[in-house]
Amino acid sequence: MRRSLKRAAFLFLLLAAPALGGLSLPVRAAPVPDSFSDPAMEARARHLQRQLRCLVCQGESIDESGADLAADLRHLVRQQMADGKSDQQIEDYLVARYGNFILMKPPVEPDTYVLWLAPFLVLIGAGAVAILVISRARKSAGEL
Amino acid sequence: MIGELGQLALCFALALSLVMAGAGLAGARTEAALARNIAHGATMGMLVFVILAFGTLTYAFVTSDFSIADVANNSHTLKPLVYKITGVWANHEGSMLLWVLVLSLYAGAVAMLGRGGERLTSAALGIQGLLASAFILFILFTSNPFLRIDPAPFEGAGLNPLLQDPGLAMHPPMLYAGYVGLSASFSYAAAALIVGEEGWARAARPFMLLAWIALTCGIALGSWWAYYELGWGGFWFWDPVENASLMPWLVATALLHSALATEKSGAFRTWTLLLAIGGFSLSLIGTFLVRSGVLSSVHAFASDPTRGFFIMVLIVCAIGGALGLFAWRAPHLQGGASFNTASRETALLLNNVFLVASCASVFVGTLYPLALDALNGTKISVGPPYYAATFAPIFFALLLLVPFGPLLGWRRGDVKAAMRTLYPALGLAAVAALAVLAIASPRFLTGALAFAVAGWLLGASAIDMAKRKGARASAFAAALAHAGLAVTLMGVTATTLWRSEALDLVGPGDTMTVGPYTLRFDGVTQEQGPNYQAMRAHIALMDGARVSAMLTPEKRLYPAEGQETADTAIHTTGFRDLYLALGDERSAGHWTVRAYVSPLAPFIWLGALVMALGGALSLWGRLRLRVSAPAAAPQPAE
After folding, report:
1. Quick one: closest CA in A to B368, which residue?
2. CA-based nearest distance A32→chain B, Å
3. pLDDT tens-digit profile of B138-173?
4. pLDDT above 70 covers what percent of chain B?
5. Residue contact B353–A123, C-beta within 8 A
6. Side by side, which strands form the sheet with B569-572?
7. HEC sequence for B543-604
8. Contact assignment for B338 to A25 by CB distance below 8 Å
9. Looking at the predicted complex, does its ipTM rise above 0.85?
10. Greater confidence, A92 or B232?
């Protein structure tokens, strides 16, 4: 259980990369059975695969998962890429079939406003309180 | 009989924890010296009985007493002794007993050290007693590790082989020492609200530091274990279980900083109390998430709700009670310190703003999908891209501000002077960014930025240390901890951005390349471990025609548990890891091998160790200060 939990999608820990959600990683094209010979296409495929969740696993993306479904989905992604579909079109197609659950990055919509806004609302709220506290403290310190 | 002994010990511990709660809280009144003595005695007595219960369970595991269900379900005669012992806490029931053991140890330390005066200590023991009694009740009613099965099986079911590992053996005790250690700060904060004592932040500081150090090490150990054990080369997964430990760490870090201001200049009195309550509350929520089964599915929780429901009630009582106490008593506390806008107080306040906001990101990211599913059945996934967009920028902003704190004076500081002092650090930041752009390929702006910040932090730490030359060792604690942040930042950035990866199918004599390295596959041999069979690959790291190192990743089969694990092989220079994992045999003699080259990967955990060392320096200074000069001690220059 721990294993599947732990193997949740990982690569995008961008502690150092503010707000750059979509940044491709310099991972070498792995010679999996179906891989693109064009490195740019392969990088795009890997990036896309990391954005999609393996539906039967626990928190793993289809890029990492060893499950059959993940392999099928990888194949499907590459098929559609070969057909010339854009990343957005491929994601839309999968969302239509499987719902938002398949997206590692939840879309911004009424259901997820709270999710996306809460951290920044807390930041603004805490910041406002901090300003209030500081202005009181400086008044009491006699700073002009 | 051994099982009954353990259960009896636990029942005595429960009775004593109730005495502790009653007497401890009664001892908060000035005249109740007798109650205080009783509370002290009950605490030590409870500690003895909890140790006895834990020892009993350990004995049952070591001797493979399969008449006890917990042992039969989680152990096996063929397991090496060390994993029989660690098996005690590698399951739900045993880990809850470890929880109570750690709580009791902290309670014992609170009683023995008696920091902050008799009344404060007594009230804190009372709160610890309440917590202990609730958790012992939880164990006895829902998670009893001493239950018998009849007939006893001849052999146990074994322990998940992933958990049979030295890193993971130490991970839970370390994490719990941190997690549960926050209970001491919680109890002191609640006690301070009851007694109205001012000096609680100072009294609780060693416990805060110890909990923070343990939590830092525990998280790092867990991450390191995931790195070498899971075979993906990943080190952090934003998995809810990991998040459950990260949230208390973020709040504990905020608490350490805020409590410093409270202690040194009397600022943020109520806020520090709230953080102490919040830190342990998040530990409780983390325990709920991990132990109730709610994570695997909201519905799994609903189908067997006893444990989850019990912890939920416990959480509501603990957090609700503490917040109620806070709402009732906090307004009576004297507040309103005075300081200028440019002051260390302001810096610490900003630290808290960003830490709390980053914790909010982890909190909603972890709990919102559960809440949404429970509310209207909508399923969403919150994966790493979410944290990259929310947590990362907030934490990044915090890192930018870190160097100013230690250089600003209390109450009245000078930002311009601090900035002048920091010019060399700014220079180092520029050098680091340019060096990264020149050396690393491909070029990433984010990589350059992150290394600039790392340079900025390291430079500032060096400047801070130089300024404190000749001071006592604990004066360097903050500089060291902040330098550790920079080290971890470099490791995380380099590994994430510049990792090379290869997945090849190789037969004997074949070579494969990963990053700049050439590997030669020399075949696979069968090996017999104590309780597993291994397929061991022999892979040579080539230096031209010469073999410069042999790596032996394994695939292990544990017959007792019927599970396979991958044992990775890592060749490290300290500055990069070459990481190999053996995959499947596709055709006779031909295996898939996964290889990664992760630049600066060891820095991730080295940085955590440096942070923990910083904490340890501070703790050492605190304890020494008390021993050498209890009364009119000079303030340590922290």
Report:
1. A115
2. 7
3. 999 988 999 998 888 888 888 888 788 888 788 889
4. 96
5. yes
6. B500-506, B590-599, B576-587, B569-572
7. ECCEEEEEECCEEEEECCCCEEEEECEEEECCCEEEEEEEEEEEECCEEEEEEEEEECHHHH
8. no
9. yes
10. A92
- Residue A80 near residue A93, CB atoms below 8 Å: yes
Backbone angles phi and psi of B309, in degrees to 5: -65, -45
* Cα–Cα distance measured from residue A82 to residue A42, given in angstroms and rounded to the nearest whole number: 11
Q: Do A115 and B444 touch (CB under 8 A)?
A: no
How far from chain centre, in Å, is Cα A87?
Answer: 14
Neighbours of B511 (CB within 10 A): 13
Tokens 């609903």 identify what position?
B302
| 3-class SS letters over B156-217 | CCCCCHHHCCHHHHHHHHHHHHHHCCHHHHHHHHHHHHHHCCCCHHHHHHHHHHHHHHHHHH
pLDDT in tens, B113-134: 989 889 999 999 999 999 999 9
Closest residue by Cα to residue B187 from B252, B95, B264, B122? B122
CA distance B85 to B100: 17
Whether the CB-CB separation of A140 and B336 falls below 8 Å is answered with yes
Nearest to B158 by CA among B226, B219, B90: B90
Peptide bond into B151 cis (omega under 30): yes
d(CA B369, CA A104): 12
Contact B160 A2 (CB under 8 A): yes
**What are the pLDDT digits (tens) for B457-488?**
999 999 999 998 888 888 899 999 999 999 99
pLDDT of residue B298: 57
Distance of residue B585 Cα from the nearest chain A Cα, in angstroms: 15
Q: 3-class SS at B353?
A: helix
Residue type, B131: L
Q: Least CB-CB distance to A103: which of B237, B368, B381?
A: B381
Question: Which two structure tokens, joined as six digits, stand for B61?
Answer: 């595991």
The alpha carbon of residue B267 is apart from the nearest alpha carbon of chain A, in Å, by: 9
Write out pLDDT tens, residues B519-531. 999 999 999 988 8
* Per-residue CA distances from B444 to A23, A24, B12, B460 (Å): 9, 10, 61, 24
Place of tokens 């008044």: A139
Boundaries of every domain in chain B: 500-601
CA B166 and chain centroid, separation: 17
Cross-chain CB nearest to A9 (options B383, B442, B499): B383
Contact B383, A9 (CB under 8 A): yes
Among B18, B99, B101, which residue's Cα sits nearest to residue B54? B101
The letter for the amino acid at B261 is: A
For residue B189, report the phi and psi dihedrals to the nearest 5 degrees. Answer: -65, -45
Contacts of A118 in chain B (CB under 8 A): 360-361, 363-364, 368
Compare CB distances from B360 to A26, A112, A122 and report the shortest one's residue: A122
Tell me the C-alpha distance between B603 and A16, whole Å: 15
Q: Both ends of chain A: CA-CA distance in Å?
A: 60
Contacts of A143 in chain B (CB under 8 A): 340-341
A105 contacts B502? CB cut-off 8 A: no
**Least Cα separation, residue A69 to chain B (angstroms):** 17
What is the CATH topology of the domain spanning B500-601? Tick-borne Encephalitis virus Glycoprotein; domain 1 (2.60.98)
CA distance, residue B396 to nearest chain A CA (Å): 6
Structure tokens belonging to residue B232: 């993906």
In this complex, do B385 and A111 lie within 8 Å of one another by their Cβ atoms?
A: no
pLDDT tens digits for range B254-306: 999 999 999 888 888 889 999 999 999 999 998 888 877 777 655 555 556 77
Task: Name the closest residue on chain B to residue A116, using Cα atoms.
Answer: B390
- CB–CB of B340 and A143 under 8 A? yes
